[in-house]
Specification:
single chain; alpha+beta; Immunoglobulin-like
């Protein structure tokens, strides 16, 4: 705020030199949200107030100036302003501050600078943009004073009024307290908003406009004379509540009370939102519902309306509180989800704060043995998994994984995670097979993932389905999240043949369980089996294959040096063949028995009942290295079932690949090799592979009689490929 000298009559109309300046601190609201309507922009409201005895020219304040009675002026602005008879500028700021600046103090501050903050005094804070500042006379003048009042003489106001945009109204008046001391009386009223403009009229009336109507309130009703000689009238002079009366005029954006007084009425000048200047003549004597003329019937009706409005507001508050609680809960859940996501994504290769471990075991369900997977979800973080979290377990079989045209390549189990707090765990057990056909397609991959449903949490808070609130607006569809949720992978576990093998022959005799059951047999086969003569041979396909066909065999040779380097930590002092077998069966339940007996070969049973024989022995490779033979370990797999032998072969190769990759990362080097010998072996393998492709193509075109010989040759070639002359170094 800057103060300039006022030009004298006849001089240049422009302001003279600056004689004072002060800065008002105000809060600027942040910019609006992109894509939404901008918040209305409010300007400060200024007016000039002078004491009743001041000789300030009448046109100093212009249309925004008025004079106050000395008692109220001194209580509001202090003794300095009263003694100096100084005008005061009132400022209503957009952040709700109502402050004042004494002009004569601002003039002297330029010659004797002091604390600039001392020039500004904050009278009140409305907590909403100030729309209007005015003053009015609430006390009716005495009869003698009214007769002696000259037509051009100013009426000194005894009440200061400030009105906020949302309808909060402040009235300040000088009153006597119970001890007879003069004190300022402040009252806040809440009127229907939003307020567009306001004006003060005679008789203690305040007119204010909203987008839907024009209202008038009376501040003179219930007032008491400003006199210490009437203590029985009560200490306060302002009414305890205001009842706005509608004038049925809408969309007035500016108001002014005309100085031309009508008999028994008031003339208002109003500017409408469409730009029309209106003259409104009001007969307030007949329109204002006076408390003295209110009948019992109208009072009862008014009370019923008020009680009904209170009930509606209470119901609305209840619904809004419920909606706020839901959104607060959703925000808390989103914050937890963000923390969990950051913790999991930033853990890297270290221990994860939330983990899911998977293990397998065989269980007997009714008359069939079933392979069960147990997934343990453990929360070692500082956060809680509550609403919206789901544990998704996907079981992918090898046959489905190889079938590219399969519409459903996996089975997914979804388990809601309900209140998994820090330090707690949740265990889930589910069957892996065999299926209804009695087969178990190995390997089986079990993938565990945490899923957080954004639509369940955010959508439920923004558009609750069970809400019957008529006051809540329907949430637009573009506010809801586009994604269904967030997926956080936890673990991936592969179940292969080595984990599913069972070894009934390793159990002690007194604790030996019955032999594992194979797949459920056909009723006709069961009947024929029961009719077999005593001492006869079983006629099942597995037993026939084992009796008349040679077992399918495959082998893998691994450098003894490579195995020792990989197994030195947990198998020191154990023979290399025994340590290798223990390493292969590390995830099998029988590994403790194998370790205790120091076995280097073992015979187990596959899920379909076929025997699988694992043999580990040391061999010497003499043709690879010119420096001498290379000590190696040969792992041999035998099974009467070609499919089970292939599954065991696949499981062992997978472990060898992992071991070789880890050892290669440590920088181990291979010895000198006979490159020409290796090239010859490689060429032989390439020839066999081409023959395999030719035989497979021939099987597709030959008839049944010719395809038998082709199939026999194909099995012979496969047998040669499963016994390579190479060794893993």
């Amino acid at each position: 705020m800057q103060l300039f000298e006022r030009p004298s009559p006849g001089e240049d109309a422009r302001p003279g030199g600056q004689i004072g300046e002060v800065e008002l601190s105000t809060y600027t609201p942040p910019a609006g949200v992109p894509g939404k309507p901008a918040a209305p922009h409010f300007l400060p409201v200024l007016c000039c107030v002078s004491p009743s005895g001041s000789r300030v020219p009448h046109d100093l304040g212009g249309s925004g100036g008025f004079s106050l009675e000395d008692a109220l002026f001194g209580l509001l602005f202090g003794a300095d302003a009263t003694l100096l008879q100084s005008p005061v500028v009132l400022c209503g700021l957009p952040d709700g501050q109502l402050c004042c600046v004494i002009l004569k103090a601002l003039v002297t501050s330029s010659s004797a600078p002091g604390d600039p903050n001392g020039l500004v005094k904050i009278l009140h804070h409305l907590e909403e943009p100030v729309i209007f500042i005015g003053a009015l006379k609430t006390e009716p003048p005495a009869a003698e004073a009214a007769e002696n009042l000259l037509p051009d003489e100013d009426v000194h106001s005894d009440c200061l009024v400030a009105l906020g945009h949302q309808g909060r109204m402040l009235a300040i008046k000088a009153s006597w307290d119970e001890s007879g001391k003069l004190v300022p009386e402040l009252r806040e009223y809440h009127l229907p908003g939003p307020v567009l403009c306001a004006a003060c009229g005679g008789g203690g009336l305040v007119y204010y406009s909203t987008p839907s109507d024009l209202f008038v309130v009376d501040l003179s009703r219930g007032s008491t004379p400003l006199s210490a000689e009437q203590p029985d009238e009560g200490p306060g002079g302002l009414p305890p509540m205001l009842c706005p009366a509608s004038l049925n005029i809408c969309s007035a954006v500016s108001l002014s009370v005309s100085p031309r007084m009508q008999e028994g009425g008031t003339e208002l000048l109003a500017l409408s939102a469409k730009g029309r200047l209106l003259t409104c003549t009001l007969d307030l004597e007949s329109e204002m519902p006076g408390s003295a003329r209110m009948t019992a019937e109208s009072a009862g009706r008014k009370i019923k309306e008020l009680l009904s409005g209170i009930g509606n507001i209470s119901e609305r508050v209840s619904f809004l509180k419920k909606a706020v609680d839901q959104r607060n809960k959703a925000l808390t859940s989103l914050n937890e989800a963000m923390n969990v996501s950051c913790a999991l994504l930033s853990s890297g290769a270290g221990p994860r704060p939330i983990s899911c471990t998977t293990s397998t075991t065989w269980s007997r369900l009714q008359t069939q043995d079933v392979l069960m997977a147990t997934c343990v979800l453990e929360n070692r973080s500082d956060f809680s998994l509550d609403q919206g979290w789901t544990l998704c377990i996907q079981v992918l079989t090898s046959s489905r994984a190889l079938d590219l045209d399969s519409a459903c390549s996996a089975i997914t189990y979804t388990i809601p995670v309900d209140r998994l707090g820090p330090g707690t765990r949740r265990e889930v057990t589910l069957p892996l097979g065999p299926g209804e056909d009695g087969g178990l397609d190995l390997p089986v991959t079990v993938s565990c993932t945490l899923f957080y449903s954004l639509r369940e949490v955010v959508g439920g808070a923004l558009a609750p389905s069970d809400s019957e609130d008529p006051f809540l607006d329907e949430c637009p569809s573009d506010v809801l999240p586009e994604q269904e949720g967030v997926c956080l992978p936890l673990s991936r576990y592969t179940v292969d043949m080595l984990q599913c093998l069972r070894f009934p022959g390793l159990a002690p005799p007194h604790t030996r369980a019955p032999s594992p059951l194979g797949p459920p047999s056909d009723p006709v086969a069961t009947f024929l089996e029961s009719c077999r003569e005593p001492g006869g041979q079983p006629a099942g396909p597995t037993s026939l294959r084992a009796e008349y066909l040679p077992p399918s065999v495959a082998s893998i040779k691994v450098s003894a040096e490579l195995l020792r380097a990989a197994l030195e930590d947990g198998h020191s002092g154990v023979p290399l063949c025994c340590a290798t077998l223990q390493w292969l069966l590390a995830e099998n339940a029988a590994v403790d028995v194998v370790r205790a007996r120091a076995l280097s070969s073992v015979q187990g049973v596959a899920p379909d009942g076929a025997d699988v024989h694992l043999i580990v022995r040391e061999v010497a490779m003499t043709d690879i290295c010119p420096a001498g033979p290379i000590q190696a370990v040969e792992i041999q797999m035998e099974s009467s079932s070609l499919a089970d032998m292939c599954r065991a072969h696949h499981a062992i190769i997978g472990r060898m690949q992992t071991m070789v990759t880890e050892q290669a990362a440590q920088g181990s080097s291979a010895p000198d090799l006979r490159v020409q010998y290796l090239r010859q072996i490689h060429a032989n393998h390439e020839t066999l592979l081409r023959e395999v492709q030719t035989l497979r193509d021939r099987l597709c075109t030959e008839d049944e009689a010719s395809s038998c010989a082709t199939a026999q040759r194909l099995l012979q070639v496969y047998r040669q490929l499963r016994h390579p002359s190479l060794v893993l170094l």
